[in-house]
């Protein structure tokens, strides 16, 4: 039965060994041929059936069938195609991950809340400027610039450009970066593209005088971009270590990722 199920014979061979003898046998019965002719025709038909049932499966068909079976087993049991011990160890690793919180746990739920709050307050305190950054001098007015005027924005910094580079931003848009300090990873940086104005100033709180001057640059450009009062509020709020995913000013200006860390302050203005 397996041989019959797995046969793939050409149509012409089926016609040759089955249909033709069958038709011939039918004619011998209908047309009244001799008994000898009838025996020969039915013998031919019987021989054709025996050949069809018992013919061996070709080696090529057998290999193809074995390949299909192997692929099905791999798809049905993918885990057994690799070392089972590796799969078990990976499962154990996932289930036994260290989920211990970064603060001390006690049997008192209220104490746990207090410990968690203290831990995250400590992290927040560490991730902010650690020197006496310059406050805003409201007696010095700053003119608000047009957010779509690149030259006016660069001029508002009040100091010469130390370096300049043209590239593309994360969206593939053309972007020009301006640096106002010759020392790498230090001072004010402004990136201008069609969509955004990215402002960042890098500082070292161990060099307090230089850090103060860098903060003055950051304060000046922030007030120029956002307006005197709003810019001052944003500058002092972020300098204190507060962080905002998004701010929309009273004038409808949208800011993203407003934050100050231990050595950099940054924000993005949507044009």
Taken as a percent bin, the fraction of beta residues is: 15-25%
- Helix and strand content put the structural class at alpha+beta
Mean pLDDT: 78
What is the helical fraction, as a range of percent?
Answer: 40-55%
Q: Over all CA atoms, what is the radius of gyration?
A: 42 Å
- Ends apart, CA distance between termini: 77 Å
N-to-C series of helices and strands: HHHHHHHEEEEHHEEE
Principal-axes shape call:
elongated
Low-confidence stretches: 1-7, 57-94
Give me the number of helical elements: 9
Strand order of the largest sheet: 1-2-3-4-7-6-5
Protein traits:
7-stranded antiparallel sheet; 271 residues; single chain; 7 strands; elongated; alpha+beta; transmembrane; disordered N terminus
Outline the structure in words.
Residues 71-111 are annotated as: Disordered. Keywords: Membrane, Transmembrane, Transmembrane helix. This protein is an alpha+beta fold and 271 residues long. Among the domains are: 11-57; 150-270, no CATH class. The protein has 9 helices and 7 strands; from the N terminus they run αααααααββββααβββ. A 7-stranded antiparallel beta sheet has the order 1-2-3-4-7-6-5, covered by helices on one side. The chain starts with a helix and ends with a strand. The model is unreliable at 1-7 and 57-94 (pLDDT under 50).
């Amino acid at each position: 039965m397996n041989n019959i199920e797995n046969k793939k014979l050409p149509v012409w061979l089926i016609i040759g060994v089955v249909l033709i003898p069958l038709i011939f046998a039918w004619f011998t019965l209908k047309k009244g041929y001799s008994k000898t002719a009838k025996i020969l025709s039915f013998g031919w038909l019987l021989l054709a059936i025996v050949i069809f049932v018992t013919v061996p499966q070709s080696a090529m068909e057998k290999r193809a069938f074995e390949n299909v079976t192997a692929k099905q087993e791999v798809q049905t049991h993918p885990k057994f195609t690799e070392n089972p011990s590796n799969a078990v160890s990976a499962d154990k690793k996932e289930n036994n991950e260290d989920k211990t919180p970064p603060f001390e746990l006690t049997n008192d739920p209220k104490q746990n809340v207090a410990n968690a709050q203290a831990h995250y307050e400590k992290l927040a305190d560490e991730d902010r400027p650690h020197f006496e950054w310059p406050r805003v001098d409201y007696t010095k007015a700053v003119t608000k610039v047009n957010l779509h005027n690149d030259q006016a924005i660069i001029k508002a910094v009040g100091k010469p450009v130390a370096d300049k580079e043209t590239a593309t931003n994360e969206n593939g848009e053309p972007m020009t970066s301006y640096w106002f300090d010759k020392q790498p990873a230090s001072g004010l940086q402004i990136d201008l593209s069609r969509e955004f104005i990215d402002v960042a100033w890098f500082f070292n709180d161990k060099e307090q005088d230089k850090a103060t001057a860098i903060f003055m640059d950051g304060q000046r450009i922030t007030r120029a971009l956002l307006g005197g009062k709003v810019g001052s509020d944003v500058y002092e709020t972020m300098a204190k270590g507060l962080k905002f995913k998004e701010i929309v000013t009273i004038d409808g200006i949208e800011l993203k990722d407003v934050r100050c860390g231990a050595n950099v302050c940054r924000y993005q203005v949507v044009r």
